[in-house]
Amino acid sequence: MTRIGTSDLSVFPLSLGGNVFGWTADRDASFAVLDAFVDGGGDFIDTADSYSAWIEGNSGGESETIIGAWLASRKPADVVVATKVSQHPDFRGLSAPNVRRAAEASLARLGVEAIDLYYAHFDDETTPLEETVGAFGRLVQDGLVRNIAVSNYTAERIREWIEIADRLGVARPVAIQPHYNLVHRNTVEETIIPVAEEFGLGLVPYYSLASGFLTGKYRSTDVAGQSSPRAGGAAKYATEAGLRIIDALEEIGSAHGSSIAATALAWLRAQPTVVAPIASASTVEQVPDLLAGGRLDLSSEEVATLNSVSEWTPSAR
Predict the structure, then answer these.
(1) Which of 188, 265, 282, 293 counts the highest number of beta carbons within 10 A?
(2) CA-based max dimension of the chain
(3) Residue 184: what are its φ and ψ, rounded to 5°?
(4) Among 215, 260, 261, 258, which Cα is nearest to 234's?
(5) How many CB atoms lie within 10 A of CB 195?
(6) What are 122's strand-pairing partners?
């Protein structure tokens, strides 16, 4: 178990991504994945109010609705649910009225009394940051949200958020959700991690497996014949530099009897301030690798090897 920043939330160090629920996993498949994750020791689920509005016929909130139905059906103990605001088609942006309405809508879909971890999904520079910070603070004060967090914010804006929160006397963020993995490193390591270290924030990285590339499934930029809707996003990393990372992951993983995916997640967990990488599964068969990534500990030498082999990839830079 690992603690999320300065919060009182202790979680298994791997978060199950809910972006696929209502997209590549229907209700029954989503229930099966959630069951397998919790049965295997997982307890941290990540979603957003906008998942999966990008699919024809969806309106947003499908993932939250599925998770809410699963929570009502299974009544699991001590499961932590994180969700986000700013991208739902009906609740765009981070104005104070919108944040309140979106939170209430998420609570209704999830069927919970309070959201454990509530993220500002993307920065909204059309709304004064003081207004957004105050709105999130009031959600905590009113008991609708237990902890707040930010996603896709720059280090400068995170620092500004904290300064405003302190001035207003409201809750600080406890976590940051950045795009971070072995092929996308430098911005996070150079700017975000130092802020996280300074203020005791926990990192919960998304795209932890680079849209599936870091599973080792995609070893060519040619996606012909690939049925996955994420194939194009993953295959773009299958450059000479990217494939060196896969080879190193495979070699290190083999020494532990672990998969490429589990080893990539273990590398992320070894980075400063990282609490729990987010990874999603559309099928039950994919869940064991994710759970293994939350339990595999790499040696300092193995981490150094992966640091070195990924340091000069174009995406990492």
Answers:
(1) 265
(2) 55
(3) -150, 85
(4) 215
(5) 19
(6) none
Pairing of strands 145-151, 87-88: unpaired
Q: Please report where in the chains the tokens 């680079």 appear, as a residue.
A: 210
Mapped onto helix, strand or coil, the DSSP state of residue 240 is helix
Asked if 23 and 29 count as a contact pair (C-beta separation under 8 A), the reply is no
Closest CA to 136 of 112, 154, 162, 111: 162
Q: Is the distance from CB of 267 to CB of 296 less than 8 angstroms?
A: no
Angle subtended at Cα 278 by Cα 272 and Cα 283, rounded to the nearest 5 degrees = 150
Neighbours of 250 (CB within 10 A): 15
Q: Which residue do the tokens 């920065």 mark? A: 123
Residues 6+ apart with CB under 8 A from 145: 103, 114, 115, 118, 136, 139
111: number of Cβ within 10 Å: 14
From CA 266, how far away is CA 285, in angstroms rounded? 19
Residue type, 107: L
Q: Phi and psi of 247, rounded to 5°? A: -60, -40
- Which tokens hold the place of 197? 């270290």
pLDDT one digit per residue (tens) for the chain, 317 residues: 999 999 999 999 999 999 999 999 999 999 999 999 999 999 999 999 999 999 999 999 999 999 999 999 999 999 999 999 999 999 999 999 999 999 999 999 999 999 999 999 999 999 999 999 999 999 999 999 999 999 999 999 999 999 999 999 999 999 999 999 999 999 999 999 999 999 999 999 999 999 999 999 887 766 545 556 666 677 789 889 999 999 999 999 999 999 999 999 999 999 999 999 999 999 999 999 999 999 999 999 999 999 999 986 555 65
